[in-house]
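Quick question about two entries, pasted in order.
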Amino acid sequence: MNTVKIEPVPGTTFAENKDEARDIRQNVILPALEAGGSVTLDFGDVETSTQSYIHALISEAIRRYGEDAIPRIKFKSCTGDIRQLVTTVVEYTLMAADAAAELSKRVEP
């Protein structure tokens, strides 16, 4: 299992750098899931974040692997704010995937 320490903006307890989130997603999360493994994201130094940061971090993994990704991405030391943001991103990513699948059934070739 890979563990990634989520780093806040220097001098704060706020995570917002979407480029860093993308790098973690591309270099750690997706390769681990592709290999059948799991990832722990440690938010111990982060009190809050932007929704766009969480989205950049996990939404592609959820779109690719669906609900199977959820137990394989662990969230450690999360505040209530981080938990709420993760829940929101997971819910709307899954709903969007369901809607896209339903739409594709209705589109004729």
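Here is the second entry:
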Amino acid sequence: MKRQQLLLINVLLAATTVYAGSSKYDRAGDTAAFSRLKTLVGEWEADTQMGKAHLSYELIAGGTALVERETAEKMAPMLTVYHLDGDRLMLTHYCMAGNQPRMQARSFNSETGELEFQFLDANSLTNSGAGHMHNARFHFTDSNHLSTEWDFFENGQKKFTETAQYTRVR
């Protein structure tokens, strides 16, 4: 019996060590991802299902927050703010759906330029099934090209994905 308990304790300690190491790696990745996001400062355009889309990125608050303003021909303007919360990379999306989902970065690969955010919580959801942006993915192709995918969820399921390929114009 004691041998089984000792084995269980060793397994739990090993798992805890692996988890702690991975969370440190993730936080370091979040800092690198935020540095990469900051390089977006400027103006970007894309042809989308909503017509010509325009993104404007601006650093504010002494470089601690990145503001993204999005406009398109067939939709209301929206705003997204990216920032580090301690070591966590977060975004708050001020959506034309009238709510403000918050997402946390879950992965960043500096070699491929892939950054993924997942839903954390939201303000102003009328109910748990209300439509909202839930996940977002970015692909930094190079310094002048960016691809985005935003998943819209309703009633707990993905309803659609908005995709765009942006080119820097300034």
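Reply: The beta strands are 42-48, 51-60, 65-72, 75-85, 88-94, 100-109, 114-123, 132-142, 145-154, 157-168. The two ends are 69 Å apart (CA to CA). Hope that helps.
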